[in-house]
């Protein structure tokens, strides 16, 4: 018998807006800057790249490029993505 192992994709488990907010909050509070950008990428895939790209005002391809591991999104882009995901950036 051969075992089939599939990759775990967190995006598949972020089913609600609350799930996405909790995921981003955890990443922002406990991760690095690059961890947060990676979490934004995952949350954006969970919400729908096309939908988020429309809300942000960029193309889907541009959004993928900004959130890629070698991307360098502007703060304005990050803020718009966070807002499109139903969240706000805050300093406490």
TrEMBL record:
Gene3D superfamilies according to UniProt: lambda repressor-like DNA-binding domains
Domain HTH cro/C1-type: 49-92
Pfam families with a match to the protein in the record: dnstrm_HI1420 (PF21716)
Superkingdom of this protein's organism: Bacteria
NCBIfam families assigned: dnstrm_HI1420 (TIGR02684)
InterPro entries (UniProt xref): Cro/C1-type_HTH, HI1420, Lambda_DNA-bd_dom_sf
The protein's name in its UniProt record: HTH cro/C1-type domain-containing protein
A GO molecular-function annotation: DNA binding
